Amino acid sequence: MSERGAASSDTDSQRRRGGRSPAISRRAALAGAAGLTMSTSGCLSRFRNIVNRDDIEQLSLTITTLPADGDRESIRLAREIAAALETAGVDTAIEMRSNEEFLRAILINHDFDIYVGQHPGGLDPDFLYESLHSLYAEESGWQNPFGFTNLLVDDLLEEQRETDGEERRDTVETLLEALAVEQPFIPVCTPTEHRLVRADRFEGWADGHLATRGGYLGLEPLTDESGEQLRAVHMDARPSQNLNPLTAEYRDRGTVTDLLYDSLATETVTADGAHSLEPWLADDWEWIDESTLVVELHPDCTFHDGESLTASDVAFSYRFLADTALGGDGSPAPSPRFRGRVAAIDEVEATGESTLEFAVGVGQEVGERALMVPILPEHVWRDRAAEASVRGVRVAQGTTEAVVSNNFPPIGSGPFQYADRSEREHVTFERFDDHFSLREDVDRPEPTVDELRVQIDPRSTSAIQLLEDDAADVTSSALETYVVDDIEESDDVELVESPSWTFYHLGFNARRAPFGNPRFRQVVARLLDKAWLVEEVFDGHARPIATPVTDEWVPDRLEWDGEDPEMPFLGSDGDLDVEAVRAAFEDAGFRYDSEGNLRVRQ
């Protein structure tokens, strides 16, 4: 089922499970490997300079990011980073792209030098497996968009999947220390999310995180009118343009997907960040041995079109997400989303109408997280396994209709079903009255409104005005940080603050020189005064970070303590120490010309 299982031999598995050297030795090996790479590279560069100096030029790069109406913080962050690089002698340009164009360039085409944006992250560090494993360096999606390859890091990524409890925690700590050395991307900060809500129309806003399905279920309408419609305002038009759960360009955190499509398990997250993994479409599950998980579905579930949802649809969903061509293309064509989760499952078999047996190739902690993928109706998606055909567009080999379809109308089994849309204006959903959560014998948060209307509005200021004018109930997008301090709350309108597991970062395309050089990445990391950027760019509504996981996973040595403990800023209060920067690049094997330009081989 999974490439990991196919690619790893029994000998490899034994090597990963036993005979490990101490964590400090592993970290030292990584640092040594980085040093060996750079020292060799530096010697070769000096030799080549003597032989032929004609192709040694100033380093020029482009930062790809979003415009202000796509993500104001990203473009402001990109400008500050560009200024730091220019100060360091790097010729730097900024390229702004729309949300879908940005994600297509980064995740699908890998067409960038470096980029600045938000990573979807995760509440469990296993998201790093698909984000950084070298198996995925050429795939599309959030699977290793950096093209980062490091066999020692691969080893740790695999080990943290195969272990549980304290052993896993120790492995994750070693992994994070390795990433702090390698800097495959530079984590900058985790934003604090703020949303405005109408407290006079609904109660229960703090019971579920508004970036998850739980934030929109179980709300208590306070008037008959509010029970008829929940009015959300969203600052991203993409849900009105595409509702395909598999596309990387149109899906970020998957909130809309989770309302349209059920998953076997759900991450229950409260506004204060407390979270747990619980059954959803699965009535329950049980481990019958270390690698076999039996799942029992709620009985008599249906899709939005009235067709029965059975264990066969669940088994199909896992096979399809692993290979959207269903074996028809010769080599697998995995979904650009959910790749890492389905890779945890070696095999899935429907053993009854509502019973499944999963052969799990990882530890139980990660294995259970594999239950959080959308369940697709086989009768709708099987025909999308065909090779994609888009008039006037040359489609890459291995691309299926499943990936390029806009999926209107979407047919899922979730608590809301699609009603209608007007592109860039709204998308509207209706309560699915046959949803299992509405049964008296089922204790799950349920849809409490007849309709969910998502209005598209591109700016925080106008979205806030809609709330204040009682034309909307919730800003489903997090508000831009610059407006937060000016919001005036009242008895009717409240500001809901919640933590985020997403993080802003600078990503390198390691497929291109010099971004594949860890010494180069390390120096760039030291050009960023993260604490200063949080104040200047995010108006203080973020936390600077040295590692990209949630607080409970951060080892003591990598906790933020006024500065990045591994990559401290080369300067103070946002101002670079130019001499220290030049010395750092020269120590890394690079050189400057007489005009202060950083030189590299083109």
Automatic annotation (TrEMBL):
The lineage of its organism: Archaea, Methanobacteriati, Methanobacteriota, Stenosarchaea group, Halobacteria. SUPFAM superfamilies: Periplasmic binding protein-like II (SSF53850). InterPro entries: SBP_5 (IPR039424), SBP_5_dom (IPR000914). The keyword Iron does not apply. CDD domains: PBP2_NikA_DppA_OppA_like. Keywords: Signal, Transport. It holds the Pfam family SBP_bac_5. GO terms for molecular function: peptide transmembrane transporter activity. One of its GO terms (biological process) is peptide transport. It comes from the Archaea. Residues 1-24 are annotated as: Disordered. Residues 277-597 form the Solute-binding protein family domain. This is Family 5 extracellular solute-binding protein. Belongs to the bacterial solute-binding protein 5 family. The keyword Transport applies.
